[in-house]
Amino acid sequence: MNPEEFGKILEEATLGSHQALERIFELYDPLISKHCRIDGKIDEDLKQYILIHIALNISKFDI
């Protein structure tokens, strides 16, 4: 994905597109999962907490 495509997806996500938000989640899933590991296992509650906060706050991104 090139920077222009990412910028378009991010802009759509900040404007409320559920499909664009899901794409952002897909792109960042490896990073989010990496930071949700406790004792080598993914903590699904922590992952869900992070995803909820991304969804609630993505509209605040300044593009």
Tell me what the structure shows.
It contains 3 helices and 2 strands, in the order H-H-E-E-H. The protein has helices spanning 3-14, 18-34, 44-57, and strands spanning 37-38, 41-42. It has one domain. It is elongated and about 35 Å long. It is mainly α. A hairpin with a 2-residue loop joins strand 1 (37-38) and strand 2 (41-42). The longest helix is centred in the middle third of the chain and has 17 residues, at 18-34. Strands 1-2 form a two-stranded antiparallel sheet. It is 68% helix and 6% strand.
In sequence order, what are the helices and strands, one letter per element? HHEEH
Helix/sheet category: mainly alpha
Helix content: 55-70%
Largest sheet: 2 strands, antiparallel
General form: elongated
Strand order across the largest sheet: 1-2
**Could you list the spans in which at least 5 consecutive residues all have pLDDT below 50?**
none
Give the radius of gyration.
13 Å
User: So how many helices?
Assistant: 3
Proportion of residues in extended strands? 5-15%
Protein name: Helix-turn-helix domain-containing protein
Domain Helix-turn-helix conjugative transposon-like: 9-62
Pfam families: HTH_16 (PF12645)
Organism: Schaedlerella arabinosiphila
